[in-house]
Amino acid sequence: MSPIMASKNNRNKKNVRPDPKRIKRQKLHKAYYSAANVLWQLNEKSGSLNSLMNRFTGDKCIKMIYALAVKVLKNRDIIEQIKTKLPDFDTNTLNSYLIEILIAELLFGEKSFLKYRRKDEVQYVIENQQKITDHYANVKNSAKDNVSIDRKNPWIRYIRINYLKNSKSELMEKLKKLGFIHKAYNNNGEKISFDQFKALASSLNNDEFIFDYHFDDVFVFNDESTKKLIELYENGSIAMQDKSSLLAIEAMKLEVNMIIMDACAAPGMKTAAIASRLNNKCTIYANDKDKKRFNDMKILLSRNGVKFKSLTQEFTQIDPIKYPDLDILLLDPSCSGSGINRRLEYNNLSIDNQYHNDNVTKRCENLAKFQLAILQSALSFNAKRIVYCTCSKYQIENENVIHQLFELNPDINYEIIDPMPEWPYRGQGDYPFSSLCLRADYENTMTNGFFCCVLQRKHLESHDVDNDGKIESDNKNNNNDDETESKTPKKNKKSRKSSTAANFIITKYM
Ligand SMILES: C[S@@+](CC[C@H](N)C(=O)[O-])C[C@H]1O[C@@H](n2cnc3c(N)ncnc32)[C@H](O)[C@@H]1O
């Protein structure tokens, strides 16, 4: 009989009515279960950590849930190693995510759960407590140089100001009240180099922050400061958004009154950034085919004060004729997520091993087919600018997809342009356009991995160009008060192909 079963039976044998107060004390806090659920959903790829945490907005325990989950994610490689040394358990009876949380708490937390002996998972960890601590000591000793244990790269956290909720100076005040100190940087009035900036960012203390080097609406913190920022995140003052994803927003060259479609919008981080930068003075169609993710997005966007028009359609099925005047079409399709080195759930994976793993390669190839199909469909919208981006590091999902798009469409009415010449890190491969694409990663830009390519429409229609030859933004009824299904704008219907481009075959890609 397993020790767990034995302890269960012993408990059943007791006929004495337990003291109710004691039972209460023995109950594991519900935050443990919520955190276990977050870990499970991450494993199921049901969302990113941030989007899953959104579901707990308003929950008193949100900080605790987040802290419990993060502790596991940060130490997952160690926990995985330790788990291999422990006795097997029936995963139908014991929740393995809860066990991971308890192991993390035992090693790095407050250990307060040790008194909750009623729970089988607790019992299991207590029974193996000695083994866990011994293995941890071994792993730690044998892996002194392991980056994932003793991080060589200090992690930093980017936050974006949500201008829809506060100005930069108002946010600075709020941060000051929380005990943060703004560390100014300049070199006798001269702009410091990007390398100097990176060194400074790496040396931030827990109570310091600096302005970002490239983006006005971004502040940089030490990763450990995150817990103190949760309240600002919850009330929409800030977004926890990696700087890399703002490359796509920068690449749009946003102007007031633009009409923008975010084709793959959930969980809404980029939609929110657009609305913040334009102070809602634009029309954003935020589309996502996944209803659950779409609903999460609505929560996030409403918390952030974003006005948008909602669409929940398979992008390739949207009729472009209904959206004739798009200034920007943002394509941020599903991808391998291989660039998200800060996405804690991927921390323990080695990118190289992962890539050379046959299954992953197959998955990337399928994703690339899907990404190409999305791009192919996008051409029928005739938007003035198409911004394609992924958080994948792999060329197969990035430059190769763009190359194939141009191969498939020799008469394409778009050219690739460089949206941010000052950006230091560029596309890969020998393509003539590689240097026009933007890339990001931890080593070069101290961010997540990211890719962005901008396709600019070549032949502007006469109404798009004003007398100075500048592109006009031609929305121009800025009807964005309500979140509504799109109505067909009247203009330009004749010149549109009434095709959804769905004739481009999409294989099963997910
Ligand atoms: C990388 S995420 C988008 C992240 C989002 N742009 C942001 O910044 O928060 C990709 C999204 O594309 C959606 N998606 C995938 N295939 C799609 C399709 N064919 N049509 C519309 N949405 C799709 C997924 O449901 C997922 O939410």
UniProtKB/TrEMBL annotation:
Q: Which domain of life does the UniProt lineage start with?
A: Eukaryota
This protein's UniProt keywords = Methyltransferase, RNA-binding, S-adenosyl-L-methionine, Transferase
Ranges where the SAM-dependent MTase RsmB/NOP-type domain occurs: 147-458
Query: Which amino acids does the record list as binding S-adenosyl-L-methionine?
Result: D288, D332
- Segments carrying the region annotation (Disordered) are 1-21, 465-499
Which Pfam family, giving just one, matches this sequence? Answer: NSUN5_fdxn-like
Q: Where is the active site?
A: C391
User: An example of a Gene Ontology BP annotation on this entry?
Assistant: rRNA base methylation
GO cellular component entries:
nucleolus
Q: Name one GO molecular function term.
A: RNA binding
State where composition is biased (Basic and acidic residues).
465-475
**Which PANTHER family does the record associate with it?**
28S RRNA (CYTOSINE-C(5))-METHYLTRANSFERASE, NOP2 YEAST -RELATED NOL1/NOP2/FMU SUN DOMAIN-CONTAINING
Q: Which family is this protein grouped under? A: Belongs to the class I-like SAM-binding methyltransferase superfamily. RsmB/NOP family.
The protein's name in its UniProt record: 28S rRNA (Cytosine-C(5))-methyltransferase
